Automatic annotation (TrEMBL):
One GO CC annotation: extracellular region
Alphabetic keyword roster: Carbohydrate metabolism, Glycosidase, Hydrolase, Polysaccharide degradation, Signal, Xylan degradation
GO terms for MF: alpha-glucuronidase activity; xylan alpha-1,2-glucuronosidase activity
Known catalytic reactions: Hydrolysis of (1->2)-alpha-D-(4-O-methyl)glucuronosyl links in the main chain of hardwood xylans
Keyword Hydrolase: yes
BP GO annotations: xylan catabolic process
Signal peptide: 1-37
Species for this entry: Kribbella soli
Keyword Cell inner membrane: no
Top enzyme category: hydrolase
Assembly with partners or alone: Homodimer.
Lineage summary: Bacteria, Bacillati, Actinomycetota, Actinomycetes, Propionibacteriales
Residue span(s) of domain Alpha glucuronidase N-terminal: 47-150
Protein name: Xylan alpha-1,2-glucuronidase
Sequence ranges assigned to domain Glycosyl hydrolase family 67 C-terminal in this UniProt record: 477-690
Length: 945
């Protein structure tokens, strides 16, 4: 495949780049005497569709004799795509041009369709005859899927004798959910911007074809191209011809286009009309007619339009409950209008009310509606009752809606499982979910897989939806190993009986080739990665230990206390039992009620999800609960370190470009695994004060709100806790970043189980920046949170021409800085202030220091006027948000852009810099603050040095 180059820089990739370069340099082949020639460089764009020359010379010769041309039997557009893919694939694999011909000759590869009721509508057979190979589908899609499977067999260098096979998909609906927005941002996306350039449509990019090929190659037959937090603009008439052009590309590869629909679209899209619609009540006749007209309009342009996906009455989205109607009434109004076109309506069940315990809420809302949804309406349910945690119980709605079409929603994009920094191969988790026996029918069944494949209740409008991780990064998923989850989801949607071992082996061989050592090493890493991530992030099913707002990346257990856990000095967990807690365990079949509701019977991996547990409780391993928390986090971190070592042993067996890229990912992974280990272990030791078995450790804590001032002496307060059974004497100092940093040391003696605060002298240079600092401890010993701690350095106000803390009027003020709030208008004497309409102010609370907690921002551009002194001056501006993700902020003067930030995950900040000149006498500068269309810019501080 070919496509545009894209490689965004984030804090974590910058963090990893230096160490990764050193690691890669140290692990590349040391001499040309290696038994393996280094493969040519790749960038990851081709994913598993790599048609490289077959390496086995004997097998290559046999392939060349067996496959000399292609014949397509039929003129359907999907069959033509199958022929084109066979020509592309065979030509690459065989190293010679393989043409498409009209007549079947000797050694032909023939692709076509044939009625076969045993294959269902999308199954296929691959049959090797005496003089040809026949790829036959029950329909055109089946023939296309067979063509891809045939090529994958050759990619994996299977003998000719093993090419015969028959297969059919288990789930009728195999769907991707994109969370892409009109401005091309992606909610929970970690691989750049949307691959869809909406404003270019109906102009088409080659990458759209590659996207469609990618989906078809693993049997995905439906895709929802926009965010469930939907903009009504996607349904505006002016946009539909562009979407029709995109649907045409997808159609040629057997994929139906869907749209997420905003339930209030009739209100939004008629607002400028003489007689606007002012409600979205599904029983209102004008609302019904508007949707009928819109659906008619869509199908005139997109005859195979799949339907709508709707998120309603959830997290601020509009819906039928706003008008006293049920979710079923809201869904059925749309489903009835789609039915005439063979369209479907997928309605998400993810709803929650408050945060006391949202685990039980959606069951109580949707279970009473079972049997009320119409035949072409499908309820889409997340795998767990919370929100895509690394470990949750299976959602009790599976088995709780036997008279309702149901899809399972899995999150391929790693919102809570490490983004594109932590390797977390999710197929083992998904296997455990699909294999869960609900005990809601006869015997122990049905399983979740039985429900979503239609076996349980004899249903056809069921399946699997994956919230996908694709973006416009060159490697599609933000890191080279991320596509394994995309591939794995699709393979499970096709056949949930496949093992994780089979699926990951398939992906490795297609992505990296058949080198046995590469397959063996990488498979071992991948299959352990989910349990490893769980071990250092989520003790015993607790989950949700990141900030509840923002990026859901960094550990922050204090922010979710009483949300996901009720930690005290005596114990931790969440009592969700029917007997004494929220009642959640009572939502399951009696079999699971007896297990989950009992402290003695509950599986350890879900213990803290279901129960509040004393720290001294003994697990099945014999360890106390608190010792398990300690040990699992240390063990998980060590496994990540071993992952990095193991990858290092593959130097020379993988092309250098991808090898170095993956090495960088593992470097960043180690840093973040250490951060998680240190934060969670320190948190629970701080509450329990139970000394661990063994030698113990020191743990360092930094009072919130600490800033380092560049250009002046600081006293960095560090609390040192001795989590061991013996007294320790230590000397601590900030490790200098470079020669511009001045540091000093401080000593302390800390008793067993006690804490002491040391004041560390540190003078950074006069700069505005962020740094990952380390604290050196002597004598050397295990010291948690002594490395990779993020500190903001902001210039000393006394040494600045201008130092502004920008935010709300009543937020804490940075020492020496002047306040700029929305009410700060331009004043000549003061020398700064807003010109024209002022922006909005936000304060994210005391979790953050005075500089980062608040900011000003807005959707429209706003102007901040400042006075520049004579001569050259350096402008530095802090952008970021301690809550939600932060879109790009653009700072301009007139028509000149001075600086632009990237998309920043929530909780990540950056300084922007620009050089200005005040001329011989000084001048005023009108700084225009803006973002991309319909996105919110941020400004937290501005200094001139």
């Amino acid at each position: 495949m070919t496509g545009p180059q894209k490689h965004p820089i984030t804090r974590r990739t910058l963090l990893a780049s230096g160490a990764a370069g050193a690691l890669a340099a140290g692990l590349l082949p040391r001499s040309a005497s290696s038994a393996f020639a280094v493969p040519p460089n790749e960038d990851g764009y081709d994913l598993w569709l790599r048609y490289h020359l077959v390496a086995d010379s004997n097998l290559l010769s046999r392939y060349r004799d067996a496959f000399t041309h292609i014949v397509v039997q039929g003129n359907h557009v999907v069959l033509r795509s199958a022929g084109a893919e066979l020509a592309r694939g065979l030509s690459g694999l065989l190293g010679r041009s393989i043409p498409v011909r009209d007549q079947i000759g000797k050694s032909a590869v023939v692709v076509g369709t044939k009625v076969d009721n045993t294959l269902g509508p999308e199954g296929f057979t691959i049959k090797r005859r005496t003089d040809r190979v026949e790829i036959t589908g029950a329909g055109e899609r089946g023939a296309l899927y067979g063509a891809f499977r045939f090529l994958q067999q050759l990619q994996r260098q299977r003998p000719l004798e093993r090419l015969d096979l028959t297969d059919r998909p288990a789930s009728p609906l195999r769907m991707l959910n994109h969370w892409d927005n009109l401005n091309r941002s992606i909610e929970r996306g970690y691989a750049g911007k949307s691959i869809f350039v909406w404003d270019e449509l109906p102009g088409l990019r080659e990458r759209y074809v590659d996207y469609a090929r990618l989906l078809a190659s693993v049997g995905i037959n439906h895709t929802v191209i926009n965010n469930v937090n939907a903009s009504a603009e996607f349904l505006r008439s002016e946009r539909l011809p562009g979407l029709a052009a995109l649907a045409g590309v997808l159609r040629s590869w057997g994929v139906r286009l869907w749209l997420s629909a905003n339930y209030a679209a009739p209100i939004t899209l008629t607002a400028d009309q003489p007689s606007p619609i002012t409600v979205a009540d599904p029983l209102d006749t004008r609302v019904q007619q508007w949707w009928q007209d819109k659906i008619d309009e869509i199908y005139r342009l997109i005859p195979d339009f799949g339907g709508f996906l709707v998120k309603a009455n959830s997290e601020g989205q509009p819906g039928p409950l706003d008008y006293g109607r049920t979710h079923a009434e809201g869904a059925n109004m749309l489903a009835d209008r789609l039915a005439a076109y063979d369209g479907k309506l997928v309605w998400r069940s993810f709803v929650h009310e408050g945060f006391d315990d949202w685990a039980e809420y959606e069951y109580r809302v949707f279970h009473p509606l079972d049997g009320q949804f119409h035949a072409n309406a499908v309820v889409q349910t997340k795998n767990g009752p919370i929100d895509f945690q690394v470990r949750e119980p299976v959602n009790p709605l599976f088995g709780g809606l036997p008279r309702t079409n149901q899809m399972i929603e899995l999150q391929v994009t790693q919102e809570y499982t490490g983004h594109s920094t932590h390797l977390c191969y999710l197929v083992p988790e998904w296997k455990s979910i699909l294999g869960f026996q609900t005990h809601t029918g006869t015997g122990s069944g049905p399983t979740v897989a039985d429900i979503v494949t239609g076996l349980a209740y004899d249903q056809e409008n069921v399946g699997m939806a994956g919230v996908v991780n694709l973006g416009d990064d060159r490697d599609w998923t933000g890191y080279q190993l991320g596509a394994a989850n995309t591939h794995g989801f699709a393979r499970l949607a096709w056949n949930p009986k496949l093992s994780a071992d089979e699926i990951v082996t398939d992906w490795i061989e297609l992505t990296f080739g058949g080198d046995r050592q590469v397959v063996s090493v990488l498979k071992a890493i991948m299959l352990r990665s989910w349990s490893t991530y769980e071990s250092y992030t989520s003790p015993l099913g607790m989950g949700y230990l990141t900030y509840p707002l923002g990026s859901h990346f960094a550990p922050a257990p204090t922010t979710t206390q009483n949300l996901s856990h009720h930690t005290t000095a005596e114990g931790t967990g969440f009592d969700r039992t029917a007997a004494t807690g929220s009642g959640f365990t009572g939502l399951y079949a009696e079999h699971w009620q007896d297990i989950y509701g009992s402290l003695a019977n509950c599986p350890d991996e879900l213990l803290l999800f279901m129960h509040w547990v004393p720290y001294t409780h003994r697990l099945r391993s014999g360890k106390t609960m608190i010792q398990h928390i300690y040990d699992s986090h240390f063990d998980g971190y060590e496994r990540v370190v071993e992952f990095r070592r193991a990858w290092g042993r593959l130097a020379g067996r993988v092309d250098q470009a991808r090898y170095a890229d993956i090495a960088a990912t593992f470097d960043a992974h180690v840093i973040e695994a250490e951060r998680w280990r240190d934060t969670i272990v320190s948190y629970f030791y701080g509450f329990s004060r139970i000394v661990p078995t063994g030698t113990g450790w020191l743990q360092l804590a930094y009072p919130s709100g600490q800033l380092l001032f560049g250009g002046r002496a600081n006293s960095l307060a560090v609390e040192v806790t001795n989590a061991s059974s013996s007294e320790r004497s230590i000397t601590a100092a900030v490790h200098p970043v470079d020669s511009g940093w001045q540091v000093g040391a401080a000593s302390a003696t800390v008793g067993a189980g006690a804490a002491a605060t040391v004041a560390l002298p540190v003078t950074p240079p006069l700069i505005a920046d962020h740094f990952e600092l380390a604290i050196d401890i002597a004598p050397a010993q295990m010291a948690l949170s002594s490395r990779n701690q993020t500190f903001v350095v902001t210039p000393d106000a006394a040494q600045c021409h201008l130092a502004l803390d920008i935010g709300t009027a009543d937020s804490p003020l940075v020492t020496g800085y002047a306040r700029v709030s929305p009410s700060t208008t331009w004043d000549t004497t003061r020398g700064y202030g807003w010109v024209g309409t002022a922006p909005q102010g936000r304060d994210r609370g005391s979790t953050w220091d005075a500089l980062r907690r608040d900011f000003c921002g807005d959707y429209p551009a706003r102007t901040l006027r400042i006075t520049l002194p004579p001569g050259p001056v350096r402008l530095s501006a802090l952008v970021g948000d301690g809550g939600p993700d932060c879109p790009p902020t653009i700072i301009a003067e007139g028509n000149k852009v001075l600086a632009t930030s990237t998309d920043l995950p929530g909780g990540i900040f950056t300084w922007l810099h620009a050089d200005l000149d005040g001329g011989p006498t000084g001048r005023t500068a009108d700084l225009i603050l803006d973002s991309e269309p319909d996105r919110f810019w941020h400004l937290g501080a501005l200094v001139l040095t």
